[in-house]
Design goal:
Length: about 100
């Protein structure tokens, strides 16, 4: 089952930590897909959870999105001014899976 995650529409590049091993992959906020190891080939990265339905299982793995707040992109506003107050970052994560 190929899985992919994309980080798009975010303001600052950063990292994605994938799976139980927390494999580090860089994202650049351009919506490029990062491959996630599938449970069938990398079971050690996933937790197998009963769905409550006979012969049907759910698979769960950590996915952590990090924004680097000391990146020069993060240090200024859209207008090029320095921040006043607390700085935060946000983005959107799209996860897709396909199987046959």
């Amino acid at each position: 089952m190929p899985l992919a995650v994309t980080a798009s529409r975010c303001l600052s590049p950063g990292n994605v930590l994938l799976g139980k091993s927390q494999t580090l992959k860089a994202h650049n906020c351009k919506g490029e897909a990062l491959s996630i190891p599938a449970p069938a080939t990398h079971a050690e990265e996933w937790d197998k959870i009963s769905s409550g339905v006979t012969d049907m299982w759910l698979w769960k793995t950590p996915l952590v999105l990090q924004f680097v707040m000391n990146n020069p992109v993060s240090k200024t506003t859209y207008d090029g001014n320095t921040w006043f107050g607390e700085v935060t970052a946000q983005g959107r994560i799209d996860v897709s899976a396909s199987w046959n």
